[in-house]
Every structure is written in structure tokens, then in C-alpha cells.
Design brief:
Length: 202
């Protein structure tokens, strides 16, 4: 896949699979990795609630912060990212791959926030009925007219709200935390579910 970092009309599309939360060009900004602890406590809560995941596509894997946690839990993981950071399979644009295809498993990631809606829609297109699309997103994702239409068509089955603020790490460096001003949640969509979402707290 061709890369274009010059900030022209194509620069929007080349960063779609990147695991960051910035609107600027990738070479000028750090990326923000999820604290593995945020996934560890979420998976523990899922186990308490009787929800199991066995095969996962981590489609914005960065340096593997989430993938490694999943592997320690015995999950079969396929790790990809638009940017090759030396972990998993790089140069994979989640939003354009497997056209018309299917993924036989669940999808879990911390997507680039600007394209989170598109990541959800693509994930639900790819998974089979009964499988999950799980996204680590700010609680503000519940807001907005465009996302309201998404929720009407595809309501999440669960929203797991972190009672303590979770943080991300600048450029994947575990010594450099971002501000913890945002509340993050794990949103779970189950393909084929239509009903009222359930709120859980971690």
C-alpha cells in the first residue's frame, strides 16, 4: 500500500488503521498506546460476567500492548496495523482489507478515535453473527447525531465504564503517560444483537 505523509488529500486515508488519536500527519506526532492494565481488568470482568473470547483480530495493534495481554490469557490473536512498528503485520489498512470477506472470530482494538465509527461498522461487516466487536473508546463516543444513527442500527450490547480513569502512553513509552482527563469505556457489539445496551462498571 502506498504511503503519503505530505498532508495532501490522501493523508486522511493512509492513517486510518493507525493506533493513535491525532488528526495530524503521523511523522509529526507520537502515537498513544493503551495501558495493558486497562485490558487486564476488563478481561477479568468479562470472565465474571460469563463472556468469553477465544480468537481475536487486534486491527490497530501498535507495539502489541493489547495483543500481548490477550495472548497471556490464551487468546489466539492476529495483530495488524497500518503502520509497521515491528509488531504483528504492518501495512494493513483495516478499513479496506478483506472486502466482502469474513473474520471467523472477534475484533478488539483501541481505534484511532476520529475513525472509530468506521472501525465499528467495518468490524460488524466482517464478523459472523454472535461474534463481538470490542472497542476501547472515550465515553463521549455515546454523543453525536452521526453516532446516534450508528447506535440505532447497531446498538452495543454492553458498555463497560471504567470507574477509575485509564491512561494511554505517548509513543508507546510506558514512562510517559498522557493526562487521565478522559473517561474510557469498552464498548461491546454482538453481531445480530438488537436491544437496549447494558451498562457495567469496572
Amino acid at each position: 500500500m502506498d504511503k503519503d505523509w505530505t498532508g495532501n488529500k490522501r493523508s486522511t486515508f493512509v492513517q486510518l488503521g493507525a493506533s493513535n488519536h491525532t488528526d495530524k500527519e503521523r511523522e509529526q506526532n507520537d502515537f498513544y498506546a493503551t495501558d495493558p492494565y486497562a485490558l487486564e481488568i476488563f478481561l477479568d470482568k468479562l470472565k465474571e460476567d460469563g463472556i468469553e473470547i477465544h480468537r481475536v483480530w487486534e486491527c490497530a495493534c501498535g507495539q502489541g500492548h493489547l495483543s500481548n495481554v490477550l495472548k497471556t490469557k490464551g487468546v489466539d490473536v492476529w495483530s495488524t496495523d497500518l503502520i509497521d512498528r515491528g509488531y504483528g503485520e504492518g501495512n494493513v489498512n483495516f478499513l479496506t482489507c478483506l472486502p466482502g470477506g469474513r473474520w471467523n472470530g472477534d475484533i478488539l482494538t483501541n481505534p484511532p478515535y476520529k475513525y472509530a465509527k468506521e472501525f465499528v461498522e467495518k468490524g460488524l461487516e466482517l464478523v459472523d453473527k454472535g461474534h463481538y466487536v470490542i472497542m476501547f473508546l472515550k465515553i463521549q463516543f455515546l454523543e453525536g447525531q452521526a453516532r446516534l444513527e450508528l447506535f440505532k442500527k447497531y446498538p452495543p450490547k454492553y458498555v463497560y465504564v471504567n470507574s477509575a480513569r485509564q491512561t494511554c502512553y505517548i509513543n508507546g513509552d510506558m514512562r510517559t503517560k498522557m493526562s487521565s482527563a478522559s473517561c474510557y469505556c469498552w464498548f461491546i457489539w454482538e453481531k445480530g444483537f438488537y436491544g437496549e445496551p447494558k451498562i457495567r462498571w469496572i
